[in-house]
Amino acid sequence: MSREEFLKQLDEMLELSPPTLQGPEKLDDYPLWDSTAIITFMALADEHSGSRLTPRQIAACQTVDDLLQLAKVEK
Amino acid sequence: MHAALRAIEFHLPAATLSTSQLAAEFPEWTVAKIDAKTGIHCRHLASPQECSSDLAVTAAKKLFDSGACDPQDVDYVLLCTQSPDYFLPTTACLVQDRLGIPTSAGALDFNLGCSGFIYGLGLAEALVCSGQAKHILLLTAETYSKFLNPRDRSVRTIFGDAAAATLLSATDSTVPLLGPFVYGTDGSGGPNLMVPAGGMRYPRSQETALEKEDDQGNVRAANDLYMNGPEVFNFTLERVPDTVRRLLEKSALTLKEVDLFVFHQANSYMLDHLRKRLGIPPEKFVVAMGDCGNTVSSTIPIALKHVATSGRLAPGMSVMAIGFGVGYSWGATMVRYDQALV
Lengths: 75, 342
Hints:
The structure holds two protein chains of two kinds. Chain A is mainly alpha-helical. Chain A contains four helices and no strands. In chain A, 51% of the residues lie in helices and 0% in strands. Chain B is an alpha+beta fold. Chain B has two domains: 2-171, Thiolase/Chalcone synthase (Peroxisomal Thiolase, Chain A, domain 1), CATH 3.40.47; 178-336, Peroxisomal Thiolase, Chain A, domain 1. In chain B, the strands form five sheets. In chain B, strands 1-7-6-4-5 form a five-stranded mixed beta sheet, sandwiched between helices. In chain B, strands 8-15-14-13 form a four-stranded mixed beta sheet, sandwiched between helices. In chain B, β14 (318-325) and β15 (329-336) form a beta hairpin. In chain B, α3 (52-65) packs parallel to α4 and α7 crosses α8 (268-278). The chains are: A mainly alpha, B alpha+beta.
């Protein structure tokens, strides 16, 4: 999955019209960044790179870029 | 001598909670979003006076009425519940009496959640193999709705109440029709899916009834069920694929040789991800919770009954069944059908 495709998935996860997210956005600014979104992101990362991420790793992310890095999405 | 799965019936309480009702209560969640994440459009809820034994008795009566077996034939009752009628006596004992099962029968409760049906099959096979019982009534019954805070959408969207009655009988088969079995336990995950108060460790009090709102707007008290969704999802990603691999290895089967996969029906999003991750074709993968929700230990027998009645289950098929959840606890087995399921 390309970076653009991954961002599109994250847009859908947060119910935003793609293309909205670019990377520097702060996760705390999105009220739909909740436990359901975290589960969706875990599934996306697993599907993308086989990365099994723990909720603790995800909780440490502050921006969308942090999530992309964790999921091993290439720039 | 081995045990064979002979009949399944289930019972759902009359009251229902639809996804549109939930969406009206939680306007930040649309019907479409709840549907996409859970795959559940209706949950059945026990009434305040309706307990696990009531659901179990109704399911068992349906099984007896189907002609699968007479209560007098049952010589062992296994009842799986985490929401028993009482701390004591044992719910299985109350059910034995209400169903007219002989007093010579054994009866016990065991406390497991979503892995419970698999453990029940394992116990039944062992009871038959060791000559201790010939006709085992395996009951799974839960009224989790009594643990749910009305303002906690994270669990109200998922769980429904139900009971299932499964008959396992001794056969002359020289090969096992249930098994091999693979089990697993990791109690470190206990706090991620629990009802903190109400047992001896933390008895109910005014303090345990105090409601608090979490950072996502869900409200619950220590008396209520708490589920850490991301941690539970992480657990399933870690354990379920490995359990499938271990069971295939123990069974000397390949994934392609399995005719049908019946996983614990947790929610459709999780199931769909696991299915893709494991490379299981959709036509071999059972999803049957849309009209009842996650009914904990009853999801697998309910799904088996659905595939049997819809013609997807035929004699000679090998079915992989996997339960996983609260505990953490998990278990998997192969079910082989030597004759049509009643």
